[in-house]
Structure formats: C-alpha cells, structure tokens
Amino acid sequence: MQVNMATTKFCFCAAVLLIQFATARADGQWNNPGGWSKPNDPKWGPQVPPPFWKDFYLTFGQHVVKYPGTPTGEVGHEVELGLDKTSGSGFRSKYPYLFGRLSMNLKLAGGNSAGTVTSFYLASVFKHWCELDFEFLGNVTGEPYILQTNVFAEGKGDREQRIFLWFDPTTDFHNYGVLWNQDLILFLVDDKVIRVFHNSKDLGLPYLEYQPMYIYSSIWNGEAWATRGGRDKCDWSKAPFVASYTGFDVDACTVETGADWEIHQCYTKLFNSWYGDAAHKNLTSQQVDDLRWIKSNYIIYDYCSDTKRFNTTPPECAVNWP
Ligand SMILES: *[C@@H]1O[C@H](CO)[C@@H](O)[C@H](O)[C@H]1NC(C)=O
Ligand SMILES: *[C@@H]1O[C@H](CO)[C@@H](O)[C@H](O)[C@H]1NC(C)=O
C-alpha cells in the first residue's frame, strides 16, 4: 500500500518536472523570465514587476490563480493558487539555488480539503535529480492535514515521512522551508526542525551538493490516494480550493547560467555565509529536543521504521534521528 502510494507519487513528480521543463522551454521562458504571466488589470502597472513576479512565474492553471492585496495595501506580495475540477495551478522560481535558507509562508485550503494536495518543493532538473518535498494532504472538515516530506538524492527517493502539525495550517500563514548546506538539510516549520538529512557520504550515500534546485509549488487533485488512502474524495461543490502564499524571500545562492564558475561562487558564498558556518554544521541541542518532540508526538509514518517495505533499515536512518 505504502509502496504503491510512493511509486505513484514518484512517477507523478518526475512527469510533472519533465512537463514543466518542456513547457518552460517551449514558451521561451527558460531564457526569458519575463515570460511569466501577468494578470490583466491596469492597476498593476506594466513596468515594475511586483515581488512575486520578480522571482517566480506560473507553470500552469493561470485561470485559477489570484493576486490579492495585503492588509497594508501591497499588491503582488501574496498569491492564491486555486484548484477546481478543471485544473490545479502552480508556480516555479525563475532561477535555481544552490545552498541557503529557502522558505515561504503558506496558508492551506480550509474547510473540506479532502483529496487536495498542496506541494512546496525544491527540485533540480538533471537526470539523477535531487528533490526536497513538503506535501500537504488535505482532509475533511475538522480532521487534520498530513505533512509528508521526502528527500531525493541523485534520483534516489523512497524516504517518506508523515507528520501531523501542532497547529491548524488553514487559519494563518506559517513558514515552511529548508536550511541547506554542505553538512545537512533541515526541514523547518516555523523555524522548528521537523526533519534532518545529514550528509552521509561516509556511508556511501549521495548528498545534494552540486545540483541547484528550483522552488516549486502547486495545488492539485490527489483524491485517488491523498486522504485516508483515497477514501475521501474532493467535494467539488466547495471548489475552488485555495492555498495562499506570501513571504518570498530567500537567503541563498542564485544560479543564473549554471556555469562552473557560478557553482564555484556558490561554494565560496556558502563558506562565507551564516548558513554554512560552524554553528550550522550540526543540530543545536534545542533542535535535537525538537526532533525528539516531533518523533514522540507527531510522526505517523516513517520509512525508517517500515520493515515491511525495507528488509534492512536504510543506512541514513541511524544518523538522521538524534
Ligand atoms: C484525516 O483524518 C483522519 C481521521 O482523523 C486521519 O486518520 C487521517 O490521517 C487524516 N489525514 C489524511 C490526509 O488522511
Ligand atoms: C552532531 O550532533 C549529534 C547529536 O548531538 C552527535 O551525536 C554527532 O556526533 C554530531 N556530529 C558531528 C559531525 O559533529
């Protein structure tokens, strides 16, 4: 069951990446980030791109995307991705990043969100790709979302973990992101570590260390598997389902051309940055406590303890839980 689910997800993601890659190329957006779509409203003004468009463009589902103003009147700092019966929607960063702290504030679809999947992930585009996933699986009204995370290194994934959150992710914005350096990757929720992936090259495992990754997000129909294994379907009378995003800042190394010298520069930046300094090479004692707290209270699935799926426990499991 779990394995089937994981395989479905694996194929889906690979397919989406290929499609998005192909689409971007076909549209000429690959080399022309200005090819993002703008809403058709004169009040946005044609010249100065608002912050969202500066760093991102839509990949699909433009007709279900909205750009509301914030309470302080800023327009373009928030985006609402929609899902209706005809389409989901998504965006991608203009450039990929190599190392840094990358996060966004998300408010998930409320009410009956069963069958919906809201993803926020980083992914590279090489053949043996790298990916860091957050996937939010919706639920019927009053029941909790599941947050599923996964790590792909050089094309090898199958590292799903699932947790319940300690708050309702549909009432307010919360921050989700990663800290990524040469020693570890932290999955962060409101700056609390929910998962760590250490560099385990000493155990013979590939690490995410040279492929820059784009930021992606999308909301899509996952009713075949997402909620209680597919038993709860999307209630289309409640559509569109809307996920809101704001806070697009990233503190990371942007890779514009992918040339060797740029990758090299990202290493130089890493070694001179706060996110690559000695204090961030390992978990702090607070982070160790946080991870133990997650493990004893919120974990509902962990590939590391799925003995049906793996005859031998994957080697990184021994180091990734404190
Ligand atoms: C939805 O709620 C049910 C009942 O509380 C729970 O078993 C399930 O894990 C929740 N989440 C999803 C995505 O199915
Ligand atoms: C990182 O911290 C853990 C737990 O605090 C410790 O067991 C481990 O040896 C540390 N690793 C390194 C490379 O310092």
TrEMBL record:
Entry's Gene Ontology molecular function annotations: hydrolase activity, hydrolyzing O-glycosyl compounds; xyloglucan:xyloglucosyl transferase activity
EC numbers, comma separated: 2.4.1.207
Processing and modification events after translation: Contains at least one intrachain disulfide bond essential for its enzymatic activity.
Glycosylation sites: 139
Function statement: Catalyzes xyloglucan endohydrolysis (XEH) and/or endotransglycosylation (XET). Cleaves and religates xyloglucan polymers, an essential constituent of the primary cell wall, and thereby participates in cell wall construction of growing tissues.
PANTHER family: XYLOGLUCAN ENDOTRANSGLUCOSYLASE/HYDROLASE PROTEIN 8-RELATED (PTHR31062)
Name of protein: Xyloglucan endotransglucosylase/hydrolase
Organism of provenance: Marchantia polymorpha
